[in-house]
Amino acid sequence: MGTSQKEGLASSSDAAPIHRFYSRTTWIEGAAEEQLDLVSRLAGVSHVAAFPDLHPGKYGPVGSAILADRIYPQLIGNDIGCGMSLFALDLPARKLRLDKAAQKIRVLEEPWHGDPGACLAADGLPTDLHPVALGTIGGGNHFCELQELGSLSDDCLLAGTDIRKGDLMLLVHSGSRSLGMAVFGTVLESFSGLDLDSTVGRTYLAAHNDAVRWASLNRRLIAERAARALRSDLRLVADAPHNLIEEHDDGLLHRKGAAKADIPLVPLAGSRDALSYLLVPKADRPEALASLAHGSGRKYDRRSMAGRAGTTRSDRDGLIRTSFGGHVICEDRQFLIEEAPNAYKDPNQVLDDLRTSDLAQSVATLKPLLTFKKAVNRELAAARRDKHGRLKDRRAKR
DNA sequence: ATGTTC
C-alpha cells in the first residue's frame, strides 16, 4: 500500500458495506483485504463489491467495484478503459495450421499502418486522439490470444448465441496505452476525489470516457490485424472493459479490475496455461454492482516472480509452450517470467466462486492455442545496440 | 500499466 494513499485519501468513520463474492477458503492476500477496508471508508463511497480475483493494486484492490458520489481517478489508475474483447473468427479450427498461424500473427509486432483518423472518426472520437499507439497491444498482462471454443454440459445457453463448439476465437486484453496514462497524469493528486459538477471533474470524466472508447477501438483494431493475417473475417462477441468509471443512477461506479457485467456475455480470462471461460452474468444481483471477476487474479506480484519462474533453462523453454499444445509468442523474457502461469490464481476457483455466489453461468470454455504477448521492439533494440555497441544483457544487472 | 529502467 502506498503511503500517499494513507496520507492523502479522505476517510470517513462509517464504512460502506462490502459484498464479498468468494468463499472463506479462497486465497486472498491480506493486503488486498486491507485495501478493500480502506476504500470502503473513503468519503462518499456507498457500496463495495469484491470478486474472487481480488489482489492488491497500487492505489486500491484490483478485482473490486466501488460506488461513490464522486470521482476517484486513482482507483482506476493509468490504464483507463483496459478490458477484454472477444471475437469469433470465420475460420474453422480444423483448417488452422498452428505453426503457420504463429508466424502470421507476428504482424502484431509491427506498428499499425492503418488509417487512425478514419477509425477514430467512425467511433465518434477526435481524429487526432493519440493515433500513435493505436492498434498495439502494449506490455504487462496484455495479450492477443487465439482460442478454440469448447462446449460445456449445458448446451442450451450456447444455443442462444451465434457461436459454436470448435469455433476459433480471438481474446484481446489491452487498454488505452499511453493515452490513459496521460489522462491520469492530469489528476494525479486528486486523492480526496473529484466532484462531478466541478470543471476538473467534468474534464477528467470526458477525457476518461474518450480513453475508454479509444481502448475498445484499440482492441478491435488488434483483433482485425490478427484476423486479416489469418485470412479470416471476424465478429465481436463481447466487449468487456474492467477498468473504468461509469455514471449510474445511484452514483459513480468505479470498476477496478472488475468486468462490466451488464452485457450478455463476459469473458473470464485464465492464465495463458489455463482455460478461459465465457460467462453469462445473472441480471438480478444489484449488490454485485453490474460487475464480475475479470480473470484469475494475480497470486504473486511481478517483482516476486524472478525466483518463481524461468529459473532453469528447461523452465524458461516451458514458458513458451502450454499444456494444451499451444505456443506463447513473447520475446521479452522479463514479461514471460512476470506473467508466468504460476503468477496467477486458479481460474477454476474463481469460476467456482462466481457460480456459488450465483453471479454467472459459464457457457463455454476457451482453450488457448496461440498467445501473442510482445515481440522485441526492433527500433528500441537497435537504439540500445548503437548506444552500447552490443545488446544489453539483463542478467548482468542483477 | 508506461516510447519503462541512462
From TrEMBL:
It holds the Pfam family RtcB. It comes from the Bacteria. Mn(2+) 1 binds at H142. GO terms for molecular function: GTP binding; metal ion binding; RNA ligase (ATP) activity; RNA ligase (GTP) activity. It is an enzyme of class 6 (ligase). Mn(2+) 2 binds at H173, H242. Gene3D superfamilies: tRNA-splicing ligase RtcB. The active site is at H294. GMP binds at N141, H142, F143, C144, E145, H242, N243, S276, H294, G295, S296, G297, K373. The keyword Secreted does not apply. Its EC number is 6.5.1.8. The keyword Methyltransferase does not apply. It catalyses: a 3'-end 3'-phospho-ribonucleotide-RNA + a 5'-end dephospho-ribonucleoside-RNA + GTP = a ribonucleotidyl-ribonucleotide-RNA + GMP + diphosphate. One of its GO terms (biological process) is RNA processing. Keywords: GTP-binding, Ligase, Manganese, Metal-binding, Nucleotide-binding, RNA repair. Binds 2 manganese ions per subunit. PANTHER family: RNA-SPLICING LIGASE RTCB HOMOLOG (PTHR11118). This is 3'-phosphate/5'-hydroxy nucleic acid ligase. It comes from Roseibium album. The lineage of its organism: Bacteria, Pseudomonadati, Pseudomonadota, Alphaproteobacteria, Hyphomicrobiales.
